[in-house]
Amino acid sequence: MKTSKTVLTIVALSIATSMLITTASAEEIIFNKPPAADIPVAVTVTAAPPAVLEKPQNSPPAADSTYPQSGGTVTNETAPAAAQASDSAPAPTDAGIAHEAEQDPPQLVQETAPAENLMLTAGQAIAEFTKQFDGFRYVYGAESPKYGFDCSGLVWYVYTHFGYTLPRTAGRQYKDGVSVEQPELQPGDLVFFDTNGGSRSISHVGIYVGDGQFIHASTSRHGVMISRLDNTYWAKAYYGAKRIITPQSALRLFSEISSASIV
Description:
Largest sheet: 6 strands, antiparallel
Order of helices and strands: HEEHHHHEEHHEEEEEHEH
CATH superfamily of the domain at 113-258: endopeptidase domain like (from Nostoc punctiforme)
Strand order of the largest sheet: 5-10-6-7-8-9
CATH architecture of the domain at 113-258: Alpha-Beta Complex
CATH topology of the domain at 113-258: endopeptidase fold (from Nostoc punctiforme)
CATH class of the domain at 113-258: Alpha Beta
Distance between the termini: 165 Å
Helix content: 25-40%
Number of strands: 10
Number of helices: 9
Structural class: alpha+beta
């Protein structure tokens, strides 16, 4: 009986030991088993926000802008190094801009064209303007296209049209302007005559138109006409000439020549 208990005890211990070994092996297998290689692992990565750089003064435009190049349009990311270097060059300073603004203005007309040329041009305009009255009637004391002209009235009307202020009579008109010798006459000059038989007093005036000719309000019979200075009568009566046009007035008239017309 005692022996049976001993055997049973030994059998029980053997069974218990066997179970412990089996359990330990199962735990080793379960806890040391590596993860399957074909199971993907999802990883979530949160990117850091891009760094914000302070834009320096006078810097080129941002990277998303485009720069026109000689071969087309490229972005900042693909632009050649030389182009990017030129883009980073400092902008013109206020001093540079001021220097450009202080450059000499274009030269005035009187600096590029001699005063004599301007005076000649103005005189030619006056002469051409006066020629349109050729054939108008002579009326003593008149001074307009509507009523007619006498000699000094024609001169007064023409020069008034061009902005000059002249006396109304031939004798007083002779006191204005600069004396001119006959060989130096230019269109627009005033020519004066003594038609009183050598009394050496001015009694007639006309406007020189060039080529030895002058236009004047002659007589009630002939009206306004063009005559020659070398005509026997006028050559004998010739008294002198005056130039009313000055460089300053010629410059003023230069811009008004095209607008001259009968008023």
